[in-house]
Amino acid sequence: MNLDNLYILEDRGILYINGNDVTEFLQNLISNDINKVTVENTCFASLLTPQGKYLYDFIIIKHKSGFLIDCEKSQIDKLYNTLNTYKLRSNIEIINLSNEFTVAAISQEKFMTFEKAQNLHGNTINYNEDCIFLDPRNVKLGGRIIMNLEKLEMSIKKLNLKKSSPEEYYRHSYEMGIPQINMSNLNNKIFGIECNFQELNGIDFKKGCYVGQENTARIKLKNKLSKRLLPLKLVEGKISIDNKIRNKGIEIGKVIIDNKFPFGIIKIGNENLDYNKIYETEEGKIKISMPDWIN
After folding, report:
1. pTM of the predicted model, to two decimals?
2. Distance (Å, rounded) from C-alpha 83 to C-alpha 97?
């Protein structure tokens, strides 16, 4: 990622949640601790099924008396409806601000040029009313800016940045092993902890109960994590969703995201798994990578 590049992420949407009960409401739902979110810190979290499987992931930013939720835009309406389902009698308001705010990414190096910036995941600063933060998942993903659309061009000029293709940013994320596109493919198919949310600072095992907490904690405490979401590299042919990944006929995983930045759910404890080998699917050949940030 270039120091002077700005990547407008048009595929991201923004919800705003506020009200007297907003902190308790989110705390009872999300996989992270909402109390971590302050004007100086932003967090990554997920909303899981009661069984602990993936539904949505998002970044939560403190904004005025409530919180902004930065989520993949293709899922924003479903997330809005799900949150309203859980609302019941809670004194909260949920507003879709996707047409008023935009999300942009910058490099880690650019973020560190701002006054008071710290090289800590989730570190958040305010610059001319724009919220700028270092990605809470991994600092190497760079910074993000939440900007009012009406002030977009002015903000870009003040920050001395130039617009660049978001594909460069998403390729960087993919090469790091962090998926951000077509996450709806994971819905209700794999456990949140299998998405590496623990390593991406998205699960707090010390907070109280939340939706999906029981199975998430059980997998962690009983060392039952046998599968992970890992990046795939196409070597030959093509791949499609649900293609089985095999080594000499033995299944070790399955393709779950099949766009230009593909990922698969891989049986990490399988004795036939070797990250130096080329594996077969029904339609092609692939390699599997293990990101260096996974312990």
Report:
1. 0.96
2. 15
Single-letter amino acid, residue 260: K
Structure letter (DSSP) for residue 85 = H
**What CATH number has the domain bearing residue 250?**
2.40.30
Is 155's pLDDT higher than 90?
Answer: no
Q: Is residue 34 part of a domain?
A: yes
DSSP 8-state assignment for residue 168: H
Q: State both tokens at 137.
A: 């998942």
Tens-digit pLDDT profile for residues 158-190: 888 999 999 999 999 999 999 999 999 999 999
Query: Among residues 162, 145, 158, which one has the least CA distance to residue 111?
Result: 145
Number of domains in the chain: 2
d(CA 95, CA 222): 39
Distance between CA atoms of 228 and 55, rounded to whole angstroms?
16
DSSP string, 213-261: HHHHHHHHHTT---EEEEEEEEEEE---TTPEEEETTEEEEEEEE-SSS
Which domain, by its residues, includes 142? 5-176
pLDDT in tens, 204-222: 999 999 999 999 999 999 9
Find the CATH number of the domain harbouring 140: 3.30.1360.120
Q: Does residue 114 come out as left (phi exceeding 0), alpha (psi in the -120 to 50 range) or beta?
A: beta
Same-domain check for residues 153 and 28: yes
